[in-house]
Amino acid sequence: MKFPDFASLAKNEKVARKKMRYLSLAHFADGHSRYAIADMLKVSRVSVNKWVAAYLNQGLDGLNDKPNLGRPCQLSPNQLDSLKNYVHTQSLSVKGGRINAQDVASFIKMEFGVEFQQSNIYRLLHQQGFSWITTRSRHPKQSQATQDAFKNFQLETILNIPGHVALDRVDVWFQDEARFGQQNTTTRLWATKGTRPRAVRQQQFESAYLFGAVCPATGTTEAIIAPFANSEYMHEHLKLISQATKQGRHAVVVMDGAGWHQKGMEVAFGNLTIIRLPPYSPELNPIEQVWQWLRQHTLANCCFNGYEDIVKQCTRAWNDFIMEPKCVMKLCSREWTELIT
After folding, report:
1. Residue 252 near residue 172, CB atoms below 8 Å
2. In this predicted model, what pLDDT tens digit does every residue of 111-124 receive, in sequence order?
3. Residue 315 in contact with residue 294, Cβ under 8 Å?
4. Mapping DSSP to helix (H, G, I), strand (E, B) and coil, where does residue 166 land?
5. How far is the C-alpha of 124 from the C-alpha of 121, rounded, in Å?
6. pLDDT band, very low/low/confident/very high, at 77 (cuts 50, 70, 90)
């Protein structure tokens, strides 16, 4: 009888239990007795007999772990669907608060007459695809319908750009500004288990504004750092974007409705159109993720000596971010901004 190369299979196997089965079959293929194999591997002869019989009857598939079905769930599939719907609906409730394991246990008992211990509730929720996670904030006036309509971005672009500009000559830019300063943020970091390192958090108020813009299609970026956020610096930032747009192309700059984003600012630039995001929709602007990247990777847990130091550190952080254009494109690209399909 010809055996496969059990030694190689054991060498490449990462699961210890299965590796032991391959080793026992390797010794068996070399002609060792089952008693000798059990002595060499320090396992019971019953186990060796079981592995050898499984291979002889079923081949390599017989050495795989059998599924452990365990105790069947006390709830039927229909009851589980009702439970999933209840938990999902509660997670989207606008009334506030949150449900906990006790609430879920009460719902199950009231609806299905079945009692669960709290530890089993956690296990049940995980099995149904739920996890205990941090929520994302949203403004109470935010409209999901308005956001979905804005994602019909091709039509939005056609309605706003000059009629002679073809879509294949349009570059989409995302623009935003953020404040960085001595009222800095702290973030997670790797540390020894059981410890909680302290990060310095300043109480002073020196700060600067970073104006940033990204063209996800090309990875091109433009930024300026200013002591204030106003229309004058906004005009200078738009000027940089206009200059970065290649001749013969048109830039569509997507930005929010901040007060210094005045209407008509693009008139000074013949190759630029501004499209404003729906109100209370920061998640539509990928620059928000850029600010998060800068804080988490470079600027969090830092102290700043003053305005000049803030400018220096923000410059370093932005240059670190734009060093890899492919990473910029990956972070900021959105399918709904593709104008040519």
Report:
1. yes
2. 999 999 888 999 99
3. no
4. coil
5. 5
6. very high
